[in-house]
Design a protein that fits this description.
The chain is α/β, with parallel strands linked by helices. Helix content is about 30%, strand content about 30%. Helix 3 packs across helix 4 and helix 4 packs antiparallel against helix 5. The structure holds adenosine-5'-triphosphate. This is Sulfate ABC transporter ATP-binding subunit.
Amino acid sequence: MIFCPHIFNIYIYNIKNIMSILVENISKNFGNFKALDHINLEIKTGSLVALVGASGSGKSTLLRIIAGLEKPDQGRIWLSGRNTTFLSIQERKIGYVFQNYALFKHLTVYENIAFGLDIRNINPLIRDIRVRQLLELIQLEKLANRFPTQLSGGQRQRVALARALAIEPKVLLLDEPFGALDIKVRKELRNWLRRLHSEVPVTTVFVTHDHNEALTVANEIVVFKSGRVEELNDLASL
Ligand SMILES: Nc1ncnc2c1ncn2[C@@H]1O[C@H](COP(=O)(O)OP(=O)(O)OP(=O)(O)O)[C@@H](O)[C@H]1O
């Protein structure tokens, strides 16, 4: 367990949950189109990695394959040494955040965050403690009873991140998490994600079009081009 005094005050995350990711020789075709061409990638436990590259270069397809939302034609995905290629997203225990928030409109902020805990039949007392800790983390305690339509874009995206974190995922995958937001909110959330990751170092992979965003948030950058990894940059070693 790690104790996170800073943003969280009392938020406790089971560190045993955090995993490394090994992408082994992954290929994916859509018809005759080669979306991913023999991708090999090692993502260390606790790292924060950005996938960048032109539109259509295969970033989201790889993220979806790591999550288990898409099946590869070839290759394997390993989470901390376990072959998860044929496991569902639930079995992989992965947190996934989409660009367009994908919150449930008929559920409140509180209920959205609790959703993953409810379908796992978590004890109501533990569920309540965890949701309240996450509300504190995203600084939306006062808006717990609002519905998504009553929130700003940045607030909605923070709820989406809290919802993904609620199940204590082994890895967190973010597909253009701030893409739909204006530049000011985007910058705030970048800093927030960096801080969050330094407090709770869940292995995190995020897709972005924006090289500047990748440089300010990530500690490693993977550049995609036409379904291949063109370049790997470990920013910690620069
Ligand atoms: N389900 C699908 N059926 C057919 N083609 C697809 C499918 N999903 C993705 N593709 C194609 O595969 C290629 C890679 O798509 P992907 O979404 O991975 O790119 P990306 O790098 O994430 O792009 P963007 O930055 O625009 O989101 C694109 O040419 C896309 O049109």
